[in-house]
Design brief:
Blueprint lengths: L3 H12 L1 E4 L2 E6 L2 E7 L4 H4 L7 E5 L2 E2 L5 H8 L6 E7 L7 E6 L1 E4 L3 E8 L2 E6 L6 H14 L4 E5 L8 H11 L5 E6 L7 E4 L11 E5 L6 H11 L4 E4 L7 E7 L5 E10 L19 H14 L3 E3 L5 E3 L8 E2 L7 H8 L2 H12 L13 H11 L7 H15 L4 H24 L1 H26 L4 H11 L1 H7 L5
Parallel strand pairs: 10-11, 11-14, 14-15, 15-20
Antiparallel strand pairs: 1-8, 2-3, 4-5, 4-6, 6-7, 9-10, 12-13, 12-17, 16-17, 18-19
């Protein structure tokens, strides 16, 4: 069941457009904070910043208002205006902005660029309207820079319009090839979709990056590339969202979403995960448990065009698996408690400019300044909450004083450990802090450009391209 707000969100997701100012709002410490700005739209061009706190919209106090309500006030017909009052770190007076609403077209391709002499990279974030056109434009631009190999990044891509996925596949796979078929309980409703145009480039070597949040249309593209042995998949197994859902309008602008059939890719396998938990926020351990359970039942073997064995029941599995990066507890705490975000706000208030995204490196002195800034901030490890509960329980149940003293000592040790962890995991923390700071000056594009230097999956893809005999071997049946 979709509420009116849910239906509007779905409409934005599939069309990729809405009327607004080009800003994403989030709640931080019960305040409405701008957490992302889209370049070239009124919010960014008008001078708003990530980290600004929205206190009023059109004179209405935003204290205690929900994100849904705030977003609805910011959206509206293109050509109309909206007035925002914001509190900015380091500025005493409240700032007021009157911004025109425009048709905001969400980009499917968030970034593309040449990352090595002959390797191009494209980050495809969605499959809304014009996705294939954006990918083609990116490939054309990169080929103009003489790239010979391509990385297509589908990590975190939740899917979108099936027709756009088919068009993306058609860029690299020739005319007349089956892309996906659908099957349901009603045999007459089965459909098959094929490529309809000559391929734009059917020879360029491709690596497709996938992860547990690559879903639906992303899985179709990745799976088809694998089934035709057109490229190598690198990363983690995909989400396994292979169900077709259609919506039916109800009263009061609500909708009902119905599951009607399943997707099947050219090898004949379904991309639907067995024992699927369709929850994007599930814990990592639950993810691992589900993978283990589904692997046990994914016994049916399918083959790619070249005869390589592939399986169903657990989404689309990569040809090269990359171990998931596990962040240190100190890093997780800094992110979850908003301290990385808040320091980036502080940093931008103190530094009008930084170097270009690809050149900016947080210095050792700047990291020391961050550590010093943290000293009067509360950074709590998850275990500390448990210790607080244990200490209270010990007091309530009149445990001996020495037990309470041991808990207090453990808490003190944790405080010392945090200071040590800030040094032990400095490289990891610096990288994440650096990307957050870059995003303040160069938006999403800059953050992605900075991330590529350290990304294990991207590095693995580049190493594979340096050994084309290994690349070719992965696309052939092992002897």
């Amino acid at each position: 069941f979709l509420t009116e707000e849910d239906a509007e969100t779905l409409q934005t997701f599939t069309t990729g457009t809405y009327g607004g100012i080009g800003a994403i709002i989030g709640k931080r410490k019960k305040k409405a904070i701008i957490v992302m700005l889209y370049k070239d739209y009124p919010a960014y061009q008008g001078g708003l910043r990530v980290g600004d706190e929205i206190c009023q919209i059109n004179g209405e106090d935003m204290t205690s208002k929900s994100i849904t309500h705030i977003s609805s006030l910011l959206k509206g017909m293109p050509g109309t205006a909206v007035q925002l009052s914001v509190i900015r770190y380091g500025v005493e007076e409240v700032l007021t902005f009157t911004l025109p609403r425009e048709e905001v077209m969400l980009q499917n391709v968030l970034y593309y660029g040449k990352i090595q002499v002959d390797i191009g990279y494209i980050r495809l974030a969605n499959f809304s309207t014009h996705a294939a056109e954006e990918v083609k434009d990116a490939v054309e631009s990169l080929k103009g820079e003489n790239i010979q190999k391509l990385i297509l990044d589908l990590r975190g891509n939740p899917g979108g319009i099936l027709e756009e996925a088919i068009k993306v596949v058609n860029l690299f796979i020739d005319q007349g090839c089956t892309v996906v078929s659908t099957k349901s309980k009603v045999a007459t409703s089965a459909e098959s979709y094929t490529t309809t145009q000559p391929a734009y480039d059917k020879k360029i070597p491709i690596v497709v990056l996938i992860d547990q949040k690559s879903a639906s249309a992303s899985e179709i593209v990745a799976g088809v590339i694998q089934d035709y042995d057109r490229g190598v998949l690198v990363g983690k197994s995909t989400l396994g969202k292979g169900l077709i859902q259609t919506t039916r309008p109800l009263r009061y602008n609500t909708q009902l979403k119905l599951t009607t059939s399943k997707y099947y890719i050219p090898s004949g396998r379904s991309i639907q995960k067995v024992d699927h938990n369709d929850n994007y926020q599930e814990q990592e351990q639950e993810d691992e448990d589900n993978i283990e359970k589904t692997t046990e039942v994914a016994s049916e073997i399918f083959t790619t065009q070249a005869g390589r064995q592939v399986y169903e029941g657990n989404g689309v599995a990569p040809d090269i698996e990359i171990e998931q990066v596990v962040l240190a507890p100190i890093t997780v705490s800094l992110i979850e408690q908003g301290l990385i975000f808040d320091y980036a706000t502080y940093f931008q208030a103190s530094n009008k400019y930084i170097e270009p995204a690809k050149d900016f490196v947080l210095s050792a002195t700047q990291y020391k300044e961050f550590v010093a800034w943290l000293q009067d901030k509360e950074c709590v490890y998850t275990i500390e909450s448990s210790m607080d509960q244990l200490l209270q329980q010990a007091k309530d149940e009149s445990y001996k004083a020495n037990i309470q003293e041991q808990i207090v000592l453990l808490k003190r040790y944790t405080q010392v450990q945090k200071q040590q962890d800030l040094q032990a995991f400095a490289a990891e923390i610096k990288q994440i802090l650096q990307e957050e700071i870059i995003a303040r000056y160069y938006c999403q594009e800059g953050a992605i450009e900075a991330m590529l230097v350290h990304d294990p999956s991207v590095q693995s893809a580049c190493m594979l391209f340096q050994d084309m005999s290994q690349y070719d071997g992965l696309l052939q049946v092992a002897e």
